[in-house]
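Appendix B. Worked example

We walk through a single record from start to finish. Start with the input: the chain for Legionaminic acid cytidylyltransferase, Candidatus Phaeomarinibacter ectocarpi, length 229.
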Amino acid sequence: MARLATILARGGSKGVPGKNIRMIAGRPLIAHTVAHAQDAGLFDAVVVSSDAGDILEAGKAAGATHLVRRPDEMASDQAGKLPGLRHCVAEMEAQLGLTFDTITDLQPTSPTRIADDIAGAIALQARLGVSNVISGTEAKSSPYFNLVEEQSDGAVALSKPPADNVVRRQDAPRCFDLNGSIYVWRRDALMEGDGLWFADTHLFEMPAERSVDIDTETDFAFAEFLMSR
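Next comes the structure step. The output line below is what the pipeline stores for this chain.
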């Protein structure tokens, strides 16, 4: 079973400039994710893919085993993640002369996850044999009770009205916020599939304190606070 860990880190962040190499808890942000991958002890290779030289250098210094330069057209504000991820996998397979069975993509802006989260998501995918496993945390708001959508006339309505026999939030289906932290893919689903969602997509649940996704300065400050504790 050949496993690849990918860490895709685009340069040019708008919400938190330079966030992927900004120092947090004593090391660059991306270094925490490299350490999580290495600490999991499950990967044949840990690769950082980026369009930015300083991010690649930080990834190498943190212990990434391989680096991939991402084409500029796959690193714009409008570019989706999947083309960059597929490019990274193809480059690594060409470099190493092997075909990976699973790819675990780790978001570099999730510094509060731990190696056990990665191992748990991989174990879930392996046990079920599903196309992919994504990570998330229980949602604070439910589309059945307090998550609303704006209508064309400006009014709001529940995103998903509950069935007549559901009168308590506790009786509605559990809902989750995707935290973006971990994606475990079966290779064929990633390289040949059409998007993130499959009929057999499963979720690996993580606690809220390990689900921080840094996208704003407030997120960064909150992550620093949690990591200091």
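Two observations about the output. The helical segments are 29-40, 53-62, 81-96, 115-128, 187-192, 217-228. The radius of gyration is 19 Å.
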